[in-house]
Amino acid sequence: MSSLHSISESATLARRLGVISGTVLVTAWFCCLILIRAACGRLRRGQVDEYARQWSRLLLRLVRMRLDVQGGLPDFNDGRRYIILCNHSSHYDIPATFASLPGSIRMLAKKELFAIPLFGAALRSGEFPSIDRRNHQQAVKDLQQAQRMLESGIVLWAAPEGTRSPDGQLQPFKKGCFHLALETNAVIVPLAIRGIHAVLPARSWRMNLGLPVELRVGEPLDASRYSVEQLPELMNETRARLQAMLDQPVEQAQDMADPQLGLAG
To answer: Which residues form the signal peptide (predicted)?
Structure first.
């Protein structure tokens, strides 16, 4: 990928319908696999990890995303607790992360997603934590559950902005995931994804195919080195690292793509 401003193809109505239909079918298929295994008592965390990666790669293939991964991949098996904090400007942020990074990654999902038939049940079976953004007391309980998942070895993906950015620019950060990082002495991995907001802009059905997207893994921050009183400093440092990666000039990337997936990294 030489430029994030390469010419892309604006999807026709027929193509958009094809992507949407394919996304629904692929998602339903993997949800069924998870639920069938769960019902038989045969669902294991590693199997959910593999399903999540297969699902993600198929979704990225549907929009022909050209994904370039830069930066060192963390070792999530070193016994530490990890939280991935990512800028959020597209529904495709999460599939891009699952397709690119190792470990048992689970997104901190908004409560509304668990009300979706089939999908919500699969999320619960797959150990995806929920967060009720409209109920503070419930949100506190939800974060306590997320803490237990972190302690069991799950790598938590969260968006400190709380919602998708309409233009790819960083929005103000919320404190919840930083409190969680402090309480669990977690390692924060900043993750910056550039160019992905144009694939499917927030609050829009306009879709662009074949776009180049960069996923940059930043230098980790050890939250155990910060006190509760230093929470603003931890937030500011995380934001500074994310912003720096978003502002970096586009680099010429070697094509290390999986020929079957069209993913670089």
So the answer is: none
Determine, yes or no, domain membership for 252: no
Listed in sequence order, the residues at least 6 apart from 103 whose beta carbon sits closer than 8 Å to its beta carbon are: 49, 74, 76, 77, 82, 155
Q: Which structural domain, as residue segments, surrounds residue 144?
A: 9-247
**pLDDT at residue 3 above 70?**
no
What's the average model confidence in pLDDT over 225-234?
97
For 159, phi and psi rounded to 5 degrees?
-110, 105
Q: Does a structural domain hold residue 197?
A: yes
d(C-alpha 228, C-alpha 213), whole Å: 35
Give Dmax over CA atoms of the chain in angstroms. Answer: 54
From the CB of residue 11, how many other CB atoms can be counted at a distance below 10 Å? Answer: 21
In a domain, 36, yes or no: yes
Stretch 145-157: mean pLDDT, rounded? 93
Say what the pTM is: 0.87
pLDDT at 250: 60
- The span from the CA of 257 to the CA of 197, in Å, is 21
CATH number of residue 196's parent domain: 3.40.1130
Domain total in the chain:
1
Find the range with the poorest average confidence among 97-111, 128-142, 190-204: 128-142
